[in-house]
Structure formats: structure tokens, C-alpha cells
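Sequence and fold:
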Amino acid sequence: MTFLEVDNNGLIDMEQLASSIKKETILVSIMMVNNEMGSVQDIAAISELIKEKNKATLFHVDAIQAYGKFKIYPKRMGIDLLSASGHKIHGPKGIGFLYIKDKVKIKPVIYGGGQQKGMRSGTENVPGIAGLGVAVEEIYKDHEAKIAHLYSLKQALIDGVNKLEDVTVNGVELGIGKTAPHVVSVSFAGIRSEVLLHALEERGIYVSSGSACSSNHPALSGTLQAIRIRKDLLDSTLRFSFSVNTTLEEVEYAVSVLAELLPMLRRFTRK
């Protein structure tokens, strides 16, 4: 198994990808949108490169964070397999789908009665499937307006936090239009992410940590390490995310609370 490196914007090295594809390479799997930073890979270009190197190599796209945020055309983009999840577009939890290109053959991981055309044995989750269908219809209704709204929120948050002291927005050097509209990664020097996360939570602002912290063995984010941010920021980074229901007033409130909390928390940070 080969893992590709990324640059400081979270984008893969196309030359490394090309050199990694051999005649025995069965599958290339790429996350279209990174869940922590919102980096967006050029799926069509990646597919073209893969097929140039080895036509037999299948291309799987993890579109969990991309589906509903971008219009994805598997055939046009050269995608053989694509996975998506319902809860990322306000559908039911526990439901998703796998797109499989015609004539692509894969083996099931769950055997039994041969349901779902032999792909996944077991009774179909009919309510979940129905809920996913409704969620798909809703998320792609007035899609361009929804995405424009998300980008406006993202820009407002970035503009706001950039005015604060010792704050770094990660992965937006190419411009926010080249990133996903709903995710922003922000590092706050001198403050542990878990401390800031809980302080924001007490003010009704819910974000996620860029690292999975425990008291004894903190596991630092592989994504943040891969983009080579400063070591002191690895455990000082939060992910802010938006939905189509998020308002500009909520973003402005978050920025104002950060402006209040950061100086106070830094005063109590152990050196």
C-alpha cells in the first residue's frame, strides 16, 4: 500500500501519484474533499493520469465531504467507484451509497442471502434509503445559491479571525474558491485546541478539534502533520464548519467570542 504526500494546501503531488502507479496497482482511492481543511483534489485530472499510467487501475473517490457541496459527474470525471454518506447532507445517519461504474466488478464484504444484487446481504434499510433520497433532492435544490451562501460565511469567518492576534487559517493559500465551502481550519497559537473547544461550547459555539486528545496519549492530527504546520500548532487547531442553515450573524458572533476568549485563555496557558 502506498500513501501519497500532500503540500501545505493539502493537495497531492501528481508526480508522486504517477510514479506510484505500477502494472500491479489495482486501486487508487482519493478523498475529494479533506474533512479537516476543505482541500479539494482535481478529480478529473487525477483520473486522467491514472488511466494514462494503467487503464486497468480502478479509481475510487471518497466523496463523503464533497457530495452536496459540488456537482459530481462520475462518468465525465472518470470515476469508477464513489462513496457518499447521508448524514453529511442532513439525511439519516447510517445510510449512504456506493456508485459503481458499469462493468466494474467488486466483491461484497458481507455475505448471506445475496440481497442488493449480491453486493451486500441483509434487509435493505428502506426508511434510510427514502430519507437519503429526500436529502439529495433538497441539497441540490437551488444549489448554486446555497454554495454561494456557504462561501460568504467562510469568507466572513476568515476575514474575522485574520484580525485576531496569533491566528493562522490553514490551507487557503490558493484562495477560498479552490477549497470546499463549508470547512475552515484555524490554528490559535498558545492555546490547546481542547481548551478553546470547551470554552466555545460554553458560549453555544460548537466546533471540532483538529486532534483527538486524551489525557495520557494525545493523537495529533495526521492531516495537520501532513501539511507540515508548525509543531506548536498541531494541538492548537480547530475546525469550523457550516451548513446551509448557518447564518452570517452566527459567524460574526463566533468571531466576537473568539476575540474575547483568546487573550484571556492565553494569560492562563502554562508555558
Q: What stands out?
A: The radius of gyration is 20 Å. The first strand starts at residue 27 and ends at 31.
